[in-house]
Each structure stands twice: as C-alpha cells, then as structure tokens.
Amino acid sequence: MSSVAVIDYGMGNLHSIAKALQHASPEVDVRVVSDKQSILAADRVVFPGVGAIRDCMHALQTAELVEVIAQVADSKPLLGVCLGMQALLSSSEENGGTDCLNLIPGKVIHFEKDLQDEQGQRLKIPHMGWNKVQQHAHPLWQDIAQDSRFYFVHSYYALPDESDAIAATTEYPEAFACALAKDNVFAVQFHPEKSQAVGLQLLKNFLHWDGQS
Questions:
Q1: Considering the domain 3-207 in this protein, what is its CATH number?
Q2: Max CA distance (Å), the chain
C-alpha cells in the first residue's frame, strides 16, 4: 500500500489535510507524523503550515526537521501547502526578515499596501477567498480545468528567482505565483483541502504522482 506522511511540527490544520488526502485516495495510507524515520519511510510527503514564518522555521529547527525536509525534496514527491510552500523558498520579508529552507530559490514578500481592483475598490489584506488559477503544464493539474477556483488565505506571496519554477498564477490584482514546481517538489499557496472538488483532485494527482514532470 502506498503511504503519505503529513509532517506534524505544530503548525497546521493537520486533521483537515489528512482527512482530505484520505478522501481523495482511500487506498493510500495517510500518516500524520513528526519523527524523521516515519517521514523518510513514506512514499510521499505533505508539508503543510499556517501562521508566521519565523515560528515555522523555529519549530522545524527545534524538531530537527530542516534536514529531513531537504532529504525528502531530494528523494520523493513533496507537496508544500500555504506556509509550507513559503518555507521552501530562500527567505521571507515576514517578521523583519526570516531565512527559510532555500529549496526553491526566491523570496516571499508582502502584498503592497492600498491595493485596488479595476473599479478602484480597495482590496483587503490578507487575501482571502476563491480565486481563478491559471495553470502551467504539470501532471498535478490533470483533470482540473484551466481557471478553476481555489481557496486562499494569505498576506505574503512567493516570488521565485526563476520563472520556470512557476506552476500557476492567480491575480490580486496583479498576477503572482500561487504554485511552484521543481523536480519532485510541488507547492501551492492556496488550500487544496478547502477547495472542494478541484482541491481533492489535486491531492489525488499528488498521491499518484511519481515526481516526474
């Protein structure tokens, strides 16, 4: 039986993502784990997260998971979700500047103040709600229609160094990267576990992905 480890480092709605993974592919063994051995033993790994990036990195360091995530990124399919995606980049502006895992070169920046839509209406920060996602070719978009809507909650967004790393964009109001891909790593800013049918399809695609693009 194929297995997936959801990394438990104290920051994330683990029950929600684990339940969604199990619903997406009932035949897969879903494990919420925090120890190195269990994470490395799984066929695939999900790296979720909510909250502040400094707390995230501190928790990963305290749990001795920084090197573990790097090993996973070198060896098997890895899915970063929300803060888990941001942590994969080199650094973040949050908390006065925070070094991250540097697995995907780039930085995480805050939305500009006083954002306005095309009608001149002020846009709220954090960006919260459903947005259309413009996909770039990748196996994890299989059976998901272009411009499908996914659910977002965030105040910071990813700015990768290389445009080739961008697997999808959305607009608020300008286009920004909302999904990143590098080798066997895929990461999303939105919450697939809160994105109904299209989110479940993305999780199903991940659970059957061999890490090849």
A1: 3.40.50.880
A2: 53
Please check the confidence at residue 75 and state whether its pLDDT lies above 80.
Answer: yes
Measured N-to-C along each axis, helices 196-207 and 14-24 cross at an angle, to the nearest 10 degrees, of 70
CB 131 within 8 A of CB 172: yes
Predicted pLDDT at 66: 97
**Sign, Cα dihedral of 146, 147, 150, 155:** positive
* pLDDT at 19 > cutoff 90: yes
> Is 23 one of the catalytic residues?
no
Q: List b or e across 91-115, with b for residues whose CB sees 16 or more CB atoms inside 10 angstroms.
A: bbebeeebebbebbebbbeebeeee
Q: Single out the catalytic residue among 82, 100, 127, 154.
A: 82
The DSSP element (H or E) to which 127 belongs, if any, is: strand 127-132
Nearest CA to 98 out of 156, 152, 47 is that of 156
> Active-site residue among 94, 100, 127, 191?
191
The bridge status of strand 134-135 relative to strand 98-99 is unpaired
The percentage of the chain sitting over the pLDDT mark of 90, rounded to a whole number, equals: 90
Domain boundaries, given as residue ranges, for the chain: 3-207
Give 106-117 pLDDT, tens digit per residue: 999 999 888 888
Does residue 178 have an active-site annotation? no
- Residue whose pair of structure tokens reads 């990124």 in the numeric block: 73
